[in-house]
Amino acid sequence: MTATLLRLAFSGIRSRLLSSSLTILLAGAAAATLVLALQVGDTSRDPWQRTFDAANGAHVLALMPTEDQARRLGRLAGVVDAAEPTPMAVKGVRLATGSGSLPLWLAGASEAPTVNAPVGITGTTAPGGGIVLERSLATALRAEVGTRLRLVGPLGRPVSLPVAGTAVVPSQGRYPRVNPGVAWVSPSTLQLLQPDRRDWRWVAGLRLADPDSAGAVAASIVAGAPPGTVIATTWQDQRADVLKDAEPFQLLLTMYAVILLAVGFAVVTILVGARALQQRREIGLLRAVGLTPRQVSGVFVTESAVLGLAGSVVGFGVGTLLAPVLSRATTQSLLGSPTVAADPSDLLVATIPVVLVLVVSSWLSTRRRTRYPVLQAIDAGHPAPPSGAARLLSLVSRSVVLSVGSRTLLAGRARVALLTAAISLTGATFVFALSMQEALAHRPSGAPSDVPTDLPAMVYALDAVLLVVAASALLAVALLAIRERLRDFAVLKTVGFTPRQVAATLVSPFAGLALVAGVVSVPLGLALYVGAYRLAGGDGAVTVASWPALALVPVVTVLVVLVSTVVPARVATRTPAASALRAE
Amino acid sequence: MSVLLDARHVVKRYDGGDPSTPALAGVDVRLDRGEFVAVMGPSGCGKSTMLTILAGLDRPTDGEVWFDGRRIDRLGETELAKLRRRRIGFVFQSFNLLPTLSVAENVELPLLLVGQRRGTARRTAAALLEDLGVAERRRAAPGRLSGGQQQRVALARALANDPDLVLADEPTGNLDSRSTRDVLGLLRAAHRRGRTLLVATHDARVAAAADRILRMSDGRIVEGRVLGDARPVRLPFDPDPLP
What we know:
The complex is a heterodimer. Chain A is an alpha+beta fold. Chain A is 60% helix and 11% strand. In chain B, 50% of the residues are buried. Chain B is globular.
């Protein structure tokens, strides 16, 4: 019996290529987004490790109030190597920019320390009479070797320094997320800019015999000093801090994955439900030959599960390959490019929710339709009777075309609700993207953005995926509506509807539905944006998209729906009435 | 009497069909205004194809169709739709009422299409349904009506704009004998009001009500017979003879 059910499921997949492809696209997009969310952070592990190895990274990095305290750390048990303590001014030094100034942590060393040494990227790591900038800081300042920078100390006397080089260290995350940025100058320049040693800290990089004991060593350093005077970070903390750069990606990707799953649920429920309705006769025949309602539902559920599985595998591949591309911004403060971080367990984690959503949606949409009495199912053919809402609409509407169209569309109330939800969610993601763009555009002039460069591009790419999914779903639903209503269209022609009027009965209710969905999508998108902003730790006033831009969303939604439905509508009008009726 | 419909050597071949056996192999039909003509013949002989072509629902492969002195087989779809909504009513064997509209709304539809106000259309439809004996079901969904009631509603829809020509394809094919008698009575009433009727049927009682019977076979009209004054015809196999 299982073989028979599988055969029926596979033949269903083959016979409906459009809806099968759409389901795979949906499942693949959702799975890829989930895989991206899971892997985007991990792809930076290799570059961080490379940087840590090249810098002879510190298993414990401590910022001590005095040189003597820093030097004593080298004698702690388990320490196998300790760098000469480096002074660092953590207060009072600012870097002048065109429109203001930025705080800076300035390290003073004539030569690179033996532990946690800056790894040179361009120029030199020995500052001499200039300044070496951490690379992401240099990128934000658009500074290159030779560029002159003005630094101001607490005494207010500006010092102009040429950029001698750029470097990275494994303990420093990407600027400006990690702010202030770090730069290296000679000890004499440090003394010149910040003569008050109370605002210095002494950096001690320690290498341990057992790196796993870093937590205990760091804890003992903090415990041995007066509270709040010492900072000690382990190599694990440093890595986690650097990898935190992927958090905005992960948050957005998770949000989009949830939206894609919700849209997928709506679309698959519509497609499978419509198919079950269309195949009521076949369902009746299957039951007549002995299949139970559960087994018939099982055919549809198996179909969705197989498509979901296929989509998840494709999505896993796409997500795994795209994750390093998204992490490029993260590695501004590291050596080398992000690498593929394929983890087979991610396939499982992505597949479970995707397949579950598809299976539940197809089961929900078919369970009632497989329980009709057999004879009733075989004799099927009567769609839903007129609905109350549709009656009300036709009373209000003065156009016979709009009235007939809306009655036809509203006959499938559940489908309309699901389609509206899918379009609203897609529109909401555009409101989200517009608001994000507006917030980025309104940041203070000259202040670098702490949003990774690739983030807006990723949001627009995900919006494009959702748009393709929503437009394909609309096209599929419009085609389904035509297939279901082909006889009705022929009847409309028979009573005197012109081809244009017949097309309008299909397009106009979809456009009306899109307008409603587009309007709903505005508050929904704003709520989504504000929610994500707060979740990401944002506070204060939220900048959202301008009202003219928001007003465009319903208009564009209607246009997209019109474009998606106009071709099927033309197909509907071109089918000769006699052919449609003969087919019935 | 003037000619209302004139079909000349109409041929219809379907794509993928056997070219040697067209659905219509050169049909000539002429209907005078006010005439009631029945078309009889076995299933598949081309009756339905001929009716759909005469109604402008399909196009002939060859030949000409003239309606009230105007050639219609070359008209565009929009022109044909406008012609049908005012001047041609069509009744299907399987009723083909729109399931998402109520009974009354199905009848109002052609009235609204020709520009009647909603209130006027509602009153006209109500009167028609009253005449046809289904007024009490006007708010029901078509699917909830019996076959006979659905066919009366379909007839009401076809007659709503008082068309010159009513084409009916097996209008009693799905009905029991009582409903057949009712529908036939309605067709006769329309005929009495001067409508021109062309009815494809297998039912000898329906054919007996016509002025003229055309017999079709293999896509051709093989016999045309004008009925005498001896109507209604009592046939030996008729289980429920007409009154």
